[in-house]
Amino acid sequence: MLQENIDREDNLQKDFRNLERWSFHIFTTELQTLPKNILLISTQSKGLIISGPGPTKEDFINGNYLEYRLQNMIINTIDASYSGAEGIREAFAKSGELLSDFRMVEEKKLIEDLFREINSHSGLGVYGLQDVIELLKNNVVKVLIITDDTNLNRVEGKCRRCEHLQEEIVERREVIPKKTQYTSNPCPGCNSMEVEANEQDIVDYLELLAAKVGTRLEVVSGSAEHGVMLSSLGKVGAILRYNPGHTKQVVS
Ligand SMILES: [Zn+2]
Questions:
Q1: 185 CA from centroid of ligand 1 (Å)
Q2: DSSP string spanning 153-197?
Q3: CATH superfamily of 121-252
Q4: What is the whole-number distance in angstroms between the Cα of residue 181 and the centre of ligand 1?
């Protein structure tokens, strides 16, 4: 029972981490002081949860306070017993599950889209880390999907003298041996012993590459039903902007 609670806490925290890209916006204003048709908040917002005590939230929803696009983004309402700061804390606590359900539906759709492209041989669905990275660098990837449990890291060895770069993606336990290998061997470029080694989490690395080319990166839960489907393909997949033609349909 205790373990169950701990697992649940962990999951909630993970959910919130996954939701970091979501914007949370909280209005603490009295209803009557809210301007009609408040315009958006943020184009990045994916959904709105309206929380408040008693009928206040229905008044808010029905009172046309929101611009119609925002109105359509309402996911659900939460009954809060408190108002003010305590009410906000309460809304956060209660919205965890709601948001995690919402995210799960989103992840399911993403992975179904990926499998549809792969199974229909449209050339738009690919998987396998190395191929996905190549396609990403070539700006062909529309959406990159990776599970949150790959345990992979990118290790790079860079020569301080000639800037020659060595890199490899390895599992967690191989990070230190790989770094040692880079730093204890001469640079393949200039033979100097000035190789400096660094490591980075695979998601951080992909995030940097994705940002450069405007690719959407989605980190999905590897333990959820659809994450397991992606895991069976090696935990990394991508939906492409177009069929690059010569791309091999990877078997990893
Ligand atoms: Zn060198």
A1: 11
A2: EEEEEEETTT--EEEEEEEGGGHHHHHHHHHTS--TTT--S-EEE
A3: Ribosomal protein L30/S12 (3.30.1330.30)
A4: 15
Encode the chain (252 residues) as per-residue pLDDT tens digits: 344 444 444 444 444 444 433 444 444 444 545 544 444 455 556 777 887 777 777 877 887 777 777 788 888 888 888 777 787 788 878 888 888 888 889 999 999 999 999 999 999 999 999 999 999 999 999 999 999 999 999 999 999 999 999 999 999 999 999 999 999 999 999 999 999 999 999 999 999 999 999 999 999 999 888 899 999 999 999 999 999 875 455 544
When the candidates are 1.10.260, 3.40.50, 3.30.420, 1.10.287, the CATH number that belongs to 2-102 is 3.30.420
Of 147, 139, 161, 149, the C-alpha closest to 209 is 139
How remote is the CA of residue 186 from the centroid of ligand 1, in Å?
8
* 190 CA → ligand 1 middle, Å: 4
Q: How far is the CA of 140 from the centre of ligand 1 (A)?
A: 32
240 to each of 123, 143, 244, how far by Cα in Å? 8, 7, 9
Measured in angstroms, how far is the CA atom of residue 167 from the centroid of ligand 1?
A: 14
Taking a 5 Å cut-off on Cβ, the residues next to ion ligand 1 are 159, 161-162, 164, 187, 189-190
Specify the residue for token string 């033609």. 245
